[in-house]
C-alpha cells in the first residue's frame, strides 16, 4: 500500500500452510452462546461476507466510544456531588444504545466464523481481520466504560493500570498460540462481555448512581477493580504457562528457542513501562489533563504490537523484536518527564505537552491504520479474494471434445476396419480348428 510492503515472502508462504486450531473450554460459551450464535447466523444471507460482519461489529464499538465521549469527554459525569441537583450529562438512552450496540457487536464477533464456514470463505485473512479488530476493541471498551465510574473517586492512574491489565490478558492468548500453535480461548471472556452488557442495562434502568452507592460498605467500582485485576491471573495466566510448558515437554508446540519464545513480551513490556512512566512522572500530569487521548494512544500502540504478533504466529515466523512506533513514544515521554528544574531549564508547558500527545496520537493512529489496511490488501492480493465480498466459486467449464480432422477420421476408420477383419479371421480360424 503506497509502495510499502508489510508482509514478506516468508509471511505469505506461512499463511499458505496455516490451519486454524482453536480450543474453547468455556461451559458458558459452548452451552449458551454457541447455540445462540448458530441460530442467529441462519438469518444472514450467504452473499454477506464474514469480514463485513466483523467490521460492522467493530464500527458499533467505535460508535459507542464517540457517543459517550460526546457527552462525557473528561470522564466527569459520574461525579454525584457535582450533578446532585441537575440532570446527568449522559442521558440514560445513551447507556441503552451502548448496551445494545455492545451485545450486537459481541454477537457479530461470534458468528463471523460460522458465516465463513457456511459460505466456504474461511481463510487466514478472516482470522487476522477478526483478531486484529478485537485487539483494538479491547482498549476502546475499557475507555468508554470508564464513564460509569468517573475520575473523581477512580483516578486516571488507576484506570491506566486497569487498561494495561485488560490488554495484557488479551495478548497472553496470542502469546500462547505463538508458542503452542493452538489458541485456547479464555474461559472468562464470555462472562466478562455479558457482564459489561448487563452493567450498561442496569445503568439504563436504575441510573449511573448505582456505581457510586455503597453496598455492604463496598463501592461496585471497587469490586470491579479487584475483579479485573484478579480475573486474568486466576483464570488464564497460569493456564497459559501450563500449556506452554506441556507443549515443550511433549514436543507438540513450535519448540522455539527461549529468546525467540519470549520475544513477543519485549515490545509489550516496553509499552507498559513507558506509558506508566509518562502517567506517573509527567511534569504536567498529562494523564489527568488528557485521560481519553492517553488511553487511546496506549490502546492503539497495543493493537499495533498485537497485530504484528498475530501475523507472526499465523505465518509461523519470528515476531518483531521491537515496535517502531515505540521510538517516537519514548521521545515524547522523555520530553514530558524530564526534570527540567533540576538542570535550571525552563519547564515544559502544559500546552506544549498537550501538543505532544495530540501529534503523537495522530501519528500512531494513522500509522496503525496504514499497517492494518496494507496487510489486508496484501493478503487479498495473495489469496486473490475480496475482503468485504464473498467470491463465488467458479463453476468448472465444460470443454467440448475436439472434432478430429479428415485424415484422422480416415485413419480411425482404417483401424476399425482392420480390427473387424482381424476378429472375423480369428473367428473363422477357430471354427476350422474345431
Automatic annotation (TrEMBL):
Any Pfam family: CDP-OH_P_transf
Keyword Transferase set for record: yes
Record bears the keyword Zinc-finger: no
InterPro entries assigned to the protein according to its UniProt record, in alphabetical order: CDP-OH_P_trans, CDP-OH_PTrfase_TM_dom, CDP_ALCOHOL_P_TRANSF_CS, CHOPT
UniProt KW keywords: Membrane, Transferase, Transmembrane, Transmembrane helix
One of the GO biological process terms: phosphatidylethanolamine biosynthetic process
Transmembrane segments: 52-70, 90-108, 187-211, 223-240, 261-281, 293-312, 324-343, 355-376
Superkingdom assignment: Eukaryota
GO CC terms in record: endoplasmic reticulum membrane; Golgi apparatus
Subcellular location: Membrane
GO molecular function, one term: ethanolaminephosphotransferase activity
PANTHER family hit by this protein: ETHANOLAMINEPHOSPHOTRANSFERASE (PTHR10414), GH11618P (PTHR10414:SF36)
Family: Belongs to the CDP-alcohol phosphatidyltransferase class-I family.
Protein name: CSON001609 protein
Organism per entry: Culicoides sonorensis (Biting midge)
